[in-house]
Design brief:
With 251 residues, the chain is an alpha/beta fold. The protein folds into two domains: 2-92, Elongation Factor Tu (Ef-tu), domain 3, CATH 2.40.30.10; 103-208, Nucleotide-binding domain of ferredoxin-NADP reductase (FNR) module (Rossmann fold), CATH 3.40.50. The chain has helices spanning 72-78, 113-123, 165-172, 188-198, and strands at residues 2-15, 18-25, 37-41, 51-54, 57-58, 62-68, 85-92, 103-109, 128-133, 151-154, 161-162, 180-185, 205-208, 224-226, 234-236, 243-245. The protein has a seven-stranded antiparallel β-sheet with strand order 4-3-7-1-2-6-5. It has a seven-stranded mixed β-sheet with strand order 11-10-9-8-12-13-16, with helices on both faces. The radius of gyration is 18 Å and the shape is globular. The model has no long low-confidence stretch (mean pLDDT 93).
């Protein structure tokens, strides 16, 4: 993990309030594990704290993030031009652990695709992908995943299955084989629904959670997540997470 100077090479609006930002780094990052994140110094004098972003993609000296403008920090980032200088701290956090002997089943809701794309690149030859969003405009977030025919749904019924991604997954459970292993990223209510769906067969599942972070290094304890660990129930999303065992977190 290093703090690396970078230059914005691409900051493209994809649809509605979603953007993809590619940053050229002054030096390569350390090895990236799918599910890890960076802390980005947004190029604005009005933004003091860094913002966490899942690593959507990376190269030898590049890192790409996918984000939605929801607050002051992301709005400032969306207005940053090409060649703007930034600072990138990462890779950070505990990423996904892929277990052999299982069929990987990836489940993404909306911007949750940002945390799962790297994992899909790793397991796509033997896994399946479920993606749910509000409208078919958001399929732009999938990028090259659209070439691998993911199972998709939209809340407004504009494309694919009409409903949310957990409802889509429920209809397809019988197609997943005898040993599915689920990896998920999306909004909090999605995890609760996923837990209910997988509970009967106790299907193993890892989830990437989103929490507000100030430091990203575990120093401030501002991103703790309550778990079922009796000895130490509160875990830091930036260190022990952001990937957790679904059956070990409180929902």
């Amino acid at each position: 993990m290093h703090d690396i100077e970078g230059v914005i090479r691409e900051n493209l609006p994809l649809c509605q309030s979603f953007y993809r930002c590619k940053i050229e780094l002054a030096r390569p990052m350390d090895k990236v594990i799918p599910g890890q994140f960076i802390m980005l110094k947004v190029p604005s004098a009005e933004i003091f704290f860094r913002r966490p972003f899942s690593i959507y993609d990376y190269g030898k000296r590049t890192v790409t993030i996918l984000y939605k403008t929801v607050g002051k920090g992301t709005r400032a980032l969306a207005s940053a031009p090409r060649k703007e200088r930034v600072m990138v701290l990462g890779p950070l956090g505990h990423g996904f652990e892929v277990h052999r002997g299982y069929t990987p089943v990836l489940v993404a809701g909306g911007i949750g695709i940002a945390g799962l794309r790297l994992l899909w690149k790793q397991v796509k030859k033997k896994g399946c992908f479920f993606y749910g969003c509000s409208t078919d405009d958001e399929f732009a977030l999938l990028g090259k995943i659209t070439l691998q025919q993911p199972r998709v749904c939209t809340l407004d019924g504009s494309a694919g299955f009409c409903g949310n991604v957990i409802q889509l997954l429920e209809q397809s459970l019988h197609l997943l084989g005898e040993r599915p292993y689920v990896y998920a990223c999306g909004p909090q209510p999605m995890f609760a629904s996923l837990k209910g769906l997988l509970a009967e067969k106790r299907i193993p599942c890892q989830v990437l959670v989103e929490e507000r972070m100030a430091c990203g290094l575990g120093l401030c304890f501002g991103c703790v997540r309550k778990t079922l660990d009796d000895r130490e129930p509160y875990k830091r999303a930036c260190v022990e997470g952001p990937v957790f065992d679904l059956w070990q977190i409180s929902l």
